[in-house]
Write a structure and sequence with these properties.
This protein has helices spanning about 20-30, 55-65, 65-70, 80-95, 100-105, 120-125, 140-160, 165-190, 195-215, 215-230, 250-255, 255-260, 305, 320-325, 325-345, 370-375, 410-425, 455-475, 485-490, 510-515, 520-535, 545-560, 570-585, 590-595, 600-605, 615-630, 635-650; strands spanning about 40, 50, 235, 245, 265-280, 290-300, 315-320, 350, 355-365. Helix content is about 50%, strand content about 10%. The chain has 27 helices and nine strands. This is C2H2-type domain-containing protein. It comes from Rotaria magnacalcarata.
Length: about 650
Amino acid sequence: MSQQHYFCPLCISSSGFHNYRTLFTHIRIEHRKESSFNIRCELSASCGSRYSTFDSYRSHIYRYHHSLVDLSDNNDTVPSSIDDIVNDLENLFSHPTFNNELDVINDPELFMFPDEELDDTGHEFLNFDSTAVSIATEQVNFDKLAQFYTRFLLELREYHLLPQNVVQSISSKFCSLFDIIMKLVKTKASSSFISIIDMEAVFTHVSFIINSVSKSEYNFLKQCQNDFDYQPPTEIKLTTNEELAYYIPLNRSVKSNLSRQTNSNSLLLKLYTDGIGITNPIGAKKDSHKFTCFYYLLDDLPDIVRSQVNSIGLHCICYTKHLNNDNNRSILMNILVEDLNKLQTEGITIPCLSSRIYFVFSTLSGDNLASNEIGGFQKSFSSGSFCRHCFVTYEQRHIPLTDISFLPRTRIKHDMIVNKVIANNDGQIIQGVKNESWLKDLIGFHATESLPPDMMHDIAEGVCPLIINALLIEVIQQRLLTYSDIEQRTSCFIYGFYDSSNKPPPVKKQQLTHSTIAGTASQKLCLFRLFPIIFHDIIGDLTLLPLYTILREIISYIYANPLRESWLPYLDDLCKQFHCLMIEHLPDRVTPKVHFLTEYTRSIEMHGLPILNSCMRFEAKHLYFKRLAIRTFYFKILCLASRNVINYAIAC
């Protein structure tokens, strides 16, 4: 081995390699499967160990000589000019190692990263129809090139969530690649077959287009406006110029979903709102940014389309702290309500459809805190009339429903209470009503009818972990198992194919002592369903088993699709029976969510299937923004809203 060239010690006669990376590739392809593989590392004075397998040799190289394999990390081996790069390429591709292309293609070691599980974004990328951007049958010109390259950058940004500086780096490398190719063409091509000047002009123009598209965020968005009908989010100025919100008008963003909808000319429109917290890990304070998002979803979309995260559209995003100001909230809600009412009264015209499409507001989904805040109810669930469906008080939650029934909230009664609150104007809460609803002027909305319960927060994250924790506490008290036994069983249990993606974390002692169960809503629900199997040998000895069996049956009805109307009386009896058993066996754990479970029968009669009002898929949309912020370091609402609109533009 000399300073300029590397030689293969396993070959009898071998030409030199200009850098170690090409030598390592040669060893991997030609010698890795040889039974007599034996190599000694002489890359530095401190080395000298011998390795009898390629895997051990590779581990040593990546641990101690990684800079030689990755040229980008080694300033000593990076070619200083295009001429050096050309020499490297000629040396690499002229070597006998690369004569057999099939070996290179079939070599699994060429893939640096293992297979990853695909999330919703990954599945959308795999389902992307590449024929939509095919230019094989179209006339090719520089405008088509700019459009194709812009779409390529869109895929990098939106499907893979790459930050803009990475996209710019890729464009820069492309231009360097074209320079290398042009250098090779000049040295190899004959002037009798090709005009070098014309080819150089084409490559120069291509490099100019690539650089101009990705030069800045402004240029990139300008190109998106020209080629993909991108329109930036609309800015809403609140009380001060520094307090801003952004929204996407529904008549503009909903058109992308209508290309996949049914042939009805009146569609149901569902809203969802919730807060999302994003932490910026950079900086001394490591600030946590809290946003409030409003989403929309078309209920009439086919099930397979409605369940996709990309079918959920962002309507508005703003800082949560700005909504604490009454003037800011009034300005924002007036604009959103006006946009929604205009969509319901005027509708929109879709070019691909023959008739005008109208919309009808259905419901607003959200967790209990968000729904109470939107409806103008009190936000405290530990005192007063905490339920937005009836007039039960916190002290009355221990009264069995077999002895009493609470009056449901109605339009007339609620409006009377709201008028009394407004007339008093002293901030006093009357029967759980704090103020008028944020969406009081929205057509089709009323606080007592448009805020259905959410089974994800009430059941999967509410009652289910509560019962699991109570059962495991009884297991400990009866000394059937120890804390370590419970942790071992929940960690070593082999989950089936359909449950492996929702495998819950092990249940530890700290969780049981603090009456909590770790995991997501899907993981908690999975643990609840499989609890009798995991603890099959002791489940029959628990006195709280009737609570589990009744709740299990309640869940089977609430999650059913379809759900028959004749089942509702029996479901109502089950919910009341569960409530009574909770008061009898676990009076200290009768939380408001236990009471909310008794309201599902009336909610099903009013709103239909509870699964259609679940927040589960909307929470997945939150995950998109969290990943976007972490990967791209975007923590401003304008950047997040713009990226969401671009994502819709490329999906259309």
